[in-house]
Amino acid sequence: MATPITKAVIPVAGLGTRFLPATKAMPKEMLPVVDKPAIQYVVEEAVAAGLSDVLMITGRNKTALENHFDKVGELEQALLSKGDAEKLEKVKFSTDLADVHYVRQGDPMGLGHAVLRSKMHVGREPFAVLLGDDIIDERDVLLKRMLKVQQKRNTTVVALLEVDPSQTHLYGIATVEPTGDDDVVRVTGMVEKPAPGDALEPRRDRALRAAAGDLRDPRVDAPGKGGEIQLTDALQALATGPEWAGGVHGVIFRGRRYDTGDRLDYLKAIVQLAVDRVDLGPEFRPWLVEFAAELDDRS
User: EC top class, in one word (predicted)?
Assistant: First the structure.
């Protein structure tokens, strides 16, 4: 049996340039999605899957992340004095949500390099990597399923989404073959953001030799696409490597996912989550329908 996973690593060192000037002084992960910062949704997903030991890989201007998950005594006291128990509970919830640790990435050398910075914390244990701007709807199980597959097969596991061929240049693309489970495939190759027409021709010349689930060899080969150390290259090495590497399997996810790292998808995420809120949806949905009906009349 595989060693149980108890730790989550969340790279959050990105500059968030797509959201400038809003992210000039505030981390993009702290942008509100309805009434919680995006990063809290991600940590909640980890905790719901049983991973309460969370390491964030941070960079400059990310202290707001640390403050959010830290105790704010004066704020709690002010809410207590006002008798605002509801807001006090929300504030304390984020403080007590998880055991959160932080380490700086330093030079922005790519997602693979950010994951490597976790090696002193995770040691030789397998661990989960979650992206700080990638929200999975709490009604759709993904991470728990991935952990179950990892335990059963003792392998590296990635989440896979089906994308239109015209969009392959925006994602890391995997070639796969079926297994005995409908939602699980074996990954036979991976390539980072291939050019159109190249999606099924993964590179094999470069590999990060430390990847999610296996940091036993900390050596790093030459940088990959974009001059950065790509996590995709590591997964490619594991997928095509020797038997002891364990291979790579993918869990195909067809549920609700919100990409808060893109401006348009960020706006969609707020609307999609808000309409389903018990406290907001009943008033928000009728207004939204009325607003949408009026759009055609706008010049």
Answer: transferase
Q: What is the pTM of this model?
A: 0.85
Domain locations in the chain as residue ranges: 7-261, 266-299
Q: How far apart are CA 232 and CA 247, in angstroms?
A: 13
Closest listed residue to residue 127, CA positions, set 10, 217, 291, 29: 10
Collect all residues with Cβ–Cβ distance below 8 Å to 277 and sequence separation of at least 6. 34, 284
Q: Which helix (H) or strand (E) holds 238?
A: helix 231-240
Whether the per-residue pLDDT at 78 is higher than 60: the answer is yes
**Cα 203 from Cα 239, distance rounded (Å):** 12
CA nearest to 213, candidates 118, 284, 138, 139:
118
Query: What value does the mean pLDDT of the chain take?
Result: 83
Helix (H, G, I), strand (E, B) or coil at 37: strand
User: What is the pLDDT at residue 269?
Assistant: 94
Digit-coded pLDDT (tens) for 91-121: 999 999 999 999 998 877 788 888 888 888 9
The residue type found at 222 is A
249: nearest Cα among 156, 172, 174: 156
- CATH class held by domain 7-261: alpha beta
- What number of other Cβ atoms are within 10 A of residue 244's Cβ? 7
Q: Output the pLDDT for position 211.
A: 37
